[in-house]
Amino acid sequence: xxxxxxxxxxxxxxxxxxxxxxxxxxxxxxxxxxxxxxxxxxxxxxxxxxxxxxxxxxxxxxxxxxxxxxxxxxxxxxxxxxxxxxxxxxxxxxxxxxxxxxxxxxxxxxxxxxxxxxxxxxxxxxxxxxxxxxxxxxxxxxxxxxxxxxxxxxxxxxxxxxxxxxxxxxxxxxxxxxxxxxxxxxxxxxxxxxxxxxxxxxxxxxxxxxxxxxxxxxxxxxxxxxxxxx
Length: 230
Prior knowledge:
Blueprint: H1 5-22, H2 31-47, H3 54-63, H4 74-77, H5 80-95, H6 104-114, H7 117-125, H8 131-135, H9 137-148, H10 152-166, H11 183-189, H12 201-225
Helix pairs in contact: 1-3, 1-5, 2-3, 2-9, 3-6, 3-9, 5-6, 9-12, 10-12
């Protein structure tokens, strides 16, 4: 039965590392975001006909934003395996879970390195999207969970929070010079495309509801902006 006591100890260590790290980031990428991704990723994993490795899914979900390129140096982000190696060694030496020997440490690191929307976009454009990317169901569970948290009600709040950190305009009408850097443009450039690029059936089902929430929110913005005096 997952998790075993030993697996639970490793998960708790990963959660502690995550919480300590995310405390340094802004509210759009905080520990609450990661916990939502963790919960959704495990829900998706348990819904699949072919069961993925749940420990891989949970650890990758917990650690997926520790090395987010928006918050760490390119050098830190370039080699997740080396960065997390002390954590993997601790799992082996203290808890008896040898993720290094069984290959899951590499798999978790690869998922962390490939989970982001921007990374996938760049790899596809460069023709570097591989068979592993298409077939790794653990990656798909974490990707879908992370992307689902970028849309719907929480997605709206997170977009506003990150825009505030960057001091970006929340809304500007079409044709305004600041529109390309505005939060509303981010909806059109990325968030509205997420629904059609989810990979799991459970993710797609949740995506429909959350996508509608985005559309309703955008319509409300337009209605409020275009109000006229009588």
